[in-house]
Amino acid sequence: MNRTAMLVAALAAVAATAVAAPKPKPKAPPAAAPAAAAAPGQPSAADWRTPDPSDVLVIDTNKGRVLVEMVPEAAPQTVARMRELAHENFFDGQRFFRVVENFMDQTGDPQNNGQGGSTKPNVPGEFVFRRGTDLPFATAADQTVAEIGFVKTLPVMSQSMALAPLTRDQKVAAWGLFCQGVAGMARGQDPNSGNSQFFLMRAPYPSLEKNYTAWGRVIAGQDVVVAIKVGEPVADPQDRMERVRLLADLPPADRPKVRVVDTKSAWFKSAIERARAQKGADFSACDVTIPAEVK
């Protein structure tokens, strides 16, 4: 089934037999300028954290390296699949066959045309997850009935935690926000048809929220993401993933040292406040940049 056609059904509510990754509305707005989130001064040593190397996907492309921090707290089965395929070198050599400006880069298909996947069973959709008080959450905006914030580097919206005592599991519903850099799982018309195809967001696209699984976010190499050749489909020669591995699987001599600003830190809290002051009523989590260092 054609995975490239599916998002027409998801976003336009048109019945279709084909399957697909996301389909954009015409002329999606460009990504918010990262400068909106810039905070003066440098983060202190206490403001940084080191991501779990088993949760960092290293994607070496012909345009450069992209590092994605996977967030199993939001999508455990999807992250497990990405780890599994990376261990097997499944993604090596696969192309970015569908790339839409101001939207996303799609890849992860061994057929490089949107119709293929791995031989493994499909992964259930993880569009919404349960947030409890034990899950670290950096609040960016409290809207009384809903909260916007971050789980690690993933921008998230959730119901207010004030509702948690009223639920059976003492948790509330939460979902990833499809800001620039967010990694999503492609799927077919069946919401539980994710397999191996995925996409990296070039720009924010809210209509994907609660319709596609958000499983991580680019922490380094967003410039590479937006440099990937555009097309539907992309004309030859297509850009490609040359090698995809987990950071933990790289030989120690080749393994970069990676750290990101902790979204629970004082520095990041100040960055949020500055972004909120700049954007006013238009503020969103997509306006906040999370600094990272790769050495």
From TrEMBL:
Keyword Ribonucleoprotein applies: no
Gene3D superfamilies: Cyclophilin-like (2.40.100.10)
Coiled coil location: none
Signal peptide: 1-20
Keyword hit for Nucleotide-binding: no
Superkingdom of the organism of origin: Bacteria
Assigned keywords, A-Z: Isomerase, Rotamase, Signal
Stretches with biased composition (Low complexity): 33-46
Enzyme Commission number(s): 5.2.1.8
One Gene Ontology molecular-function label: peptidyl-prolyl cis-trans isomerase activity
Enzyme class of the recorded protein, top EC level: isomerase
Region (Disordered): 21-52
Ranges where the PPIase cyclophilin-type domain occurs: 53-261
Pfam entry (one): Pro_isomerase
PANTHER family, alphabetized: PEPTIDYL-PROLYL CIS-TRANS ISOMERASE-RELATED, PEPTIDYLPROLYL ISOMERASE DOMAIN AND WD REPEAT-CONTAINING PROTEIN 1
Protein name in UniProt: peptidylprolyl isomerase
